[in-house]
Every structure is written in structure tokens, then in C-alpha cells.
Design a protein that fits this description.
There is one protein chain. By secondary structure, the chain is an alpha/beta fold. Helix content is 41%, strand content 19%. The protein folds into 2 domains: 191 residues, 3-Layer(aba) Sandwich (Rossmann fold), CATH 3.40.50; 138 residues, Glycogen Phosphorylase B (Rossmann fold, 3-Layer(aba) Sandwich), CATH 3.40.50. Strands 3-2-1-4-5-6-7 form a 7-stranded parallel β-sheet, sandwiched between helices. A 5-stranded parallel β-sheet has the order 10-9-8-11-12, with helices on both faces.
Length: 341
């Protein structure tokens, strides 16, 4: 039996694990009834059997977790490769493999496997690390760590991609161009993938959900609803998002803000700074399976980001979800792919 193997280094607790790992793998298995799925994830903490069962409910998919050491450059990744090697030897003649990001690809690349390998380029590791520490004094340790990430990316997107069995799937045209320009990645080995783009929701379903959710959370029928779906990380501009809505509400008293977030406390604190009536906003936490129902209640989705290369080359999952329910996307021209939607 053929195996569809996905190797993760960012863990099963990543917020997009279900939408960007599980759901695309299920689609592959639906198209290939003779195949099974294996997710191999490097984790810092133990994942209990009960938690594994809650994360993966499809009986065709098996989760294998391996020990993830603190990141010390190639030293940590070589240890990961040694753990992965005996597992891959069992499937070397029947598998295809997908590596989520350059770290996972570097690990797989050390095994010299002859099987087809897709490297999912979803962002820029070194640039993201540099950005995350931009507010701190960049000492020698941070400079070394940034250099380590750059060397890993250079090898994965340069030398490794030139192997005949390896291809790169990027999330945007801008990221594809960046990899070619910065890492000299072979252009003929890189494609912009859309396998994890959610299908559009039918107008009839959107209309039904719109009526249901507006009634449930008491949104007037004539309200123009702005929705924000995401967390309160600084680079996601939560304060700017609230400020944008405040300005819109001052111009139009029928405007309504719907916030779908895991960081409900942060957004409630932000909104308290402004004299908004409680009837003009609703903040809640929603399971991923319910996201589209709530998004359908809105008219426009908000996606503000700081101007930076990591945002410019990205393809935010939230943008795809907004698009799937036909929302107008309000953005600040910091994400290249939004020009194509």
C-alpha cells in the first residue's frame, strides 16, 4: 500500500495544523483510495494517545511523534534525521513525502531518499526570526541563530532542490520570486501550490449561515459587519484593526465588529479604550469547524499587517477563508497575494 508521508517541524499544536496539514492530506487520500497517510511530527513535549485521537479522527491517517531537541542549528536537525531514518526505510519503496518548511526538508534531505519529495515553502525562517527579535538588542546569539536559519534555507532551496526527485511548492508568487532571487532556487522546480485553498462556499449555504449567526448573536439585519479572524500577535496589527473599526463606526452607526480569536481577553482590553456600545461588537472563540458559519455573517474581512518581507510573501490562511465565503477583504497593501484575489 502506498504511503503519503508528511514531515512537520512546527508541531501539531500549530493553529493551522488542521486546515493546512490534515485537510489537504485527507483530500489526497480521497483521490487515492489505495493510499494511507502518515504524519511524522517532531515535538518538544509528549502527545498523549487521547490527544492524538482528538487531533486526527480519520482512520486512514497515523501520527508518529519524535523527540525535538532545542534548536542548535544542524546539530539538532542531525539528531532528528537519525530518528527519522529507520521509519523511512520501512516505506522507502512505497511512499511520497511532503516536508512542511525548510527545517523538515533539511532533516529529510540528509537521508538521501530516492522517493518523490515536495518541500512546502510557507515563509522565511531567517527573516521571521530576525523580525521576532527586532525589538530586542541583537546580540551575538541572535546573529548566530539567524545565520543558521539562512544556511539551512540556502541549502534546502538551492542545492537540495536541484535533486531530480525534489520540487518546491510555495504559497505565493512573491515567495517564489524571493526564493529564486535570494537562494538561487531553480525556477523550473518551483510552483505556486493551491492544494490547501478551501473551496468556495455556495451562495445558498452562505445565506443560510448569515441568517442563522446574525440571529444567534443578535446582529441587526441592516448592519454592515466587519470580521477579524485571528490572534492578537503584534505583527497581526490587533490595535490597528480595532482603530480602523472605530473610525468606520464613527462614520456609520450601523457598523458592527465581529472578532473570532483565541485571544479574547486582549481584544476586550483593546476595545475598552474606546467608547463603543456593547451592541456594536461581539468577541468570541470559535472552533475551526465553525469558522465558515461565523464568517458568513459578515460583509468584509479585515487583514492588516505591518510592512515587512515576511508579510509581503505570505498567503494568510485567513485571507483564503474570507475569500471562500465571498467577503470583501480590507487590507493595507502589505501582502502581495491579495492583489490576485
Amino acid at each position: 500500500m502506498k504511503q503519503r508521508i508528511v514531515v512537520l517541524y512546527d508541531g501539531v499544536h500549530n493553529p493551522v495544523f488542521e486546515s493546512q496539514v490534515i485537510e489537504p492530506l485527507i483530500k489526497q487520500l480521497d483521490q487515492h483510495p489505495d493510499a494511507q497517510g502518515i504524519i511524522i511530527s517532531f515535538e518538544r513535549t509528549l502527545i498523549s494517545q487521547k490527544e492524538q485521537q482528538s487531533l486526527i479522527t480519520d482512520p486512514r491517517i497515523r501520527l508518529i511523534t519524535l523527540r525535538k531537541l532545542p534548536f542548535l542549528g544542524s546539530l539538532s536537525l542531525r539528531h532528528a534525521a537519525r530518528q527519522l531514518a529507520p521509519i523511512m526505510q520501512k516505506h522507502i519503496h512505497t511512499a511520497t513525502i511532503t516536508c512542511r518548511g525548510p527545517m523538515a526538508a533539511w532533516i529529510v534531505g540528509q537521508l538521501n531518499l530516492p522517493i518523490p519529495c515536495i518541500v512546502q515553502a510557507r515563509g522565511l525562517a531567517a527573516q521571521e526570526y530576525r523580525y521576532a527579535h527586532s525589538s530586542k538588542i541583537i546580540g551575538w546569539l541572535h546573529r548566530i541563530r539567524t545565520w543558521q536559519y539562512e544556511q539551512i534555507e540556502q541549502w534546502v532551496y538551492g542545492a537540495y532542490t536541484r535533486n531530480a526527485n525534489v520540487t518546491i511548492h510555495t504559497v505565493s508568487k512573491a515567495l517564489r520570486s524571493y526564493l529564486i532571487t535570494t537562494f538561487n532556487a531553480p525556477a523550473d522546480k518551483i510552483m505556486v501550490a493551491d492544494h490547501d485553498v478551501p473551496a468556495a462556499i455556495s451562495p445558498a449555504q452562505r445565506s443560510a449561515w448569515r441568517t442563522e449567526i446574525r440571529k444567534q448573536i443578535k446582529i441587526p439585519n441592516n448592519a454592515y459587519v466587519y470580521v477579524y479572524n485571528g490572534s492578537a500577535k503584534p505583527w497581526q496589527c490587533p490595535q490597528e484593526t480595532v482603530q480602523f473599526f472605530v473610525r468606520e463606526y464613527q462614520k456609520n452607526q450601523s457598523a458592527f465588529l465581529l472578532v473570532l480569536t483565541q485571544d479574547t481577553g486582549t481584544f476586550k482590553t483593546l476595545i475598552k479604550r474606546y467608547a463603543l456600545p456593547p451592541s456594536s461588537f461581539y468577541i468570541t472563540r470559535v472552533a475551526h469547524t465553525e469558522i465558515y458559519r461565523y464568517l458568513a455573517a459578515a460583509d468584509a474581512g479585515m487583514l492588516l499587517r505591518e510592512p515587512h518581507i515576511i508579510n509581503w510573501v505570505s498567503r494568510p490562511t485567513k485571507a483564503l477563508e474570507y475569500h471562500a465565503v465571498g467577503l470583501k477583504i480590507i487590507h493595507n497593501n502589505t501582502i502581495s497575494m491579495l492583489k490576485d484575489i
